[in-house]
Amino acid sequence: MTTDHLNELAYRRLFRMAVTGRLSRRDLIKRAGALGLGVAATSTLLAACGDDDDPTATPGAQAPGPDPTATAGAGTTPEPEPEDEETPEAEATEPPMGATGGVLNVALNSDLTTMDPHRSTAAVDRQVYQLIYDKLVDIDETLTIVPELASEWAISDDGMEYTFTLVEGVTFHDGEAFNAEAVKFNFDRMLDEETASPRRSEIAQITEVVVEDEHTVRLVLSQPFSPLLATLSDRAGMMVSPKAIEELGEDLARQPVGTGAFTFVEWMTSDHLTVERYDGWWQEGLPHLDQVIYRPIVDANVKLTALRTGDVDIIDTVSARDVAGLRDDDTLEMSEIASLGFTYITLNNQIPPFDNIALRQAVAWTID
Q1: Which of 1, 51, 80, 268 has the smallest C-beta neighbourhood within 10 Å, fewest atoms?
Q2: Quick check: 133 and 259 in contact, CB under 8 A?
Q3: Which of 33-42, 51-60, 350-359 has the highest mean pLDDT?
Q4: Is the CB of residue 139 less than 8 Å from the CB of residue 6?
Q5: Where are the beta strands (DSSP E) in the chain?
Q6: How does strand 262-268 pair with strand 216-221?
């Protein structure tokens, strides 16, 4: 598990909390600043959390005032206007939490590839997965593993077994129950060579999945593997409906079925993908938004223009050349914070030409 991966996971955790209404703007700014999420990350989260206007106010409405036709009685003196009182900071202007409704338009830097998390290799897919699929565990803004579909877990003293207690009363979007059998089905699918899942290498240490009872499942490992929980906070831990896998087959790639806060509506390649609120979500009272619409916009200039014109509410990346101008643009929110990460090159040493160690060494020597 790399530092840039962990940082991305924490960002997506904050995004989910903003979308589902579990953070105020004030808390969001504090947490994003403490973590360090990179250029435009906090603007993305702030847009998801909502603006500062009171959503309960009626446009154009005015506070009641004195009747202009009334006159003071003879010999009476109008009471003096009360002095201005101090207005509490920030909290007074924040929208009340819990308001329901609205559509959020999100611009992505590339098109999506598949809605099957067990077969996805593209980072951009993760952004949509966060709303459609829940995971066994999640990772918070401090990079701490926290419960999600697994309410608690225990690790054996030798690190060879992980026992998860599952949240009860959870259902997939197709009405099927989420339980230990569903967890086993998902792991067996990822580990099956015929699935050809990229997740297989991520959880290769798992040798057996044991259903203890309806809401308890145990993972048996071939050797201790300390990054397992962090791995399960990403695509390897996302639970897909076994019924959907069996009935849809390859079509699952375009008709995802999870247990998440939003259900899949439609996917028009190169145009948009839409999800809508799942009223049966196991986290009662959430989410707040009606819909989230993802729009792939590859060109950075077009994407920024869409943000300025209000065609989208959030963009996921900003070109370096635009940063200076955005600093002075008071119509948009942008944050510049140093983030964790690194750049790397991987060479496949199992096939030509890089099965030749001399060639791999030559590549290494050509790079300073």
Answers
A1: 80
A2: yes
A3: 350-359
A4: yes
A5: 103-108, 137-139, 145-147, 150-155, 161-166, 206-213, 216-221, 262-268, 272-277, 291-296, 314-315
A6: unpaired
Q: Greatest CA span in the chain, whole angstroms?
A: 105
How does DSSP classify residue 198? Answer: G
How many Å apart are CA 114 and CA 255, to the nearest integer? 9
Q: Give, rounded to a whole angstrom, the gap between the first and last alpha carbons of the chain.
A: 25
Region of residue 336 (phi > 0: left; psi between -120 and 50: alpha; otherwise: beta): beta
Query: Strand pairing of 291-296 and 103-108?
Result: parallel
Angle at 217 between CA 211 and CA 223, to 5 degrees: 105
CB 164 within 8 A of CB 153: yes
Distance CA(231)–CA(223), nearest Å, equals 15
| pTM to 2 decimal places | 0.71
Asked if residues 13 and 347 have their Cβ atoms less than 8 Å apart, the reply is no
Tell me which residue of 106, 113, 151 sits closest to 12, measured CA to CA. Answer: 106
Which tokens in the block code for residue 36? 């360090």
Q: Model confidence over 191-241: pLDDT tens digits?
A: 999 999 999 999 999 999 999 999 999 999 999 999 999 999 999 999 999
Residues 305, 107: contact at Cβ < 8 Å?
Answer: no
Q: Are 240 and 252 spatial neighbours (Cβ–Cβ below 8 Å)?
A: yes
Within 10 A of 102 (CB to CB), how many other CB atoms are there?
A: 13
Taking the CA atoms of residue 197, residue 129, residue 257 and residue 182 in that order, the dihedral angle to the nearest 10 degrees is 60
Q: What is the predicted pLDDT for the residue at 72?
A: 36
Give the tens place of pLDDT for each residue, 333-357. 887 766 666 788 889 999 999 999 9
DSSP codes, 170-189: -B-TTSPBP-HHHHHHHHHH
CA–CA separation, 5 and 228 (whole Å): 14
CA–CA separation, 150 vs 168, rounded Å? 9
> What DSSP character marks residue 204?
T
Output the six-digit token pair for 120: 């996805």
Q: How far apart are CA 33 and CA 27, in angstroms?
A: 10
Around Cβ 10, how many Cβ atoms within 10 Å? 24
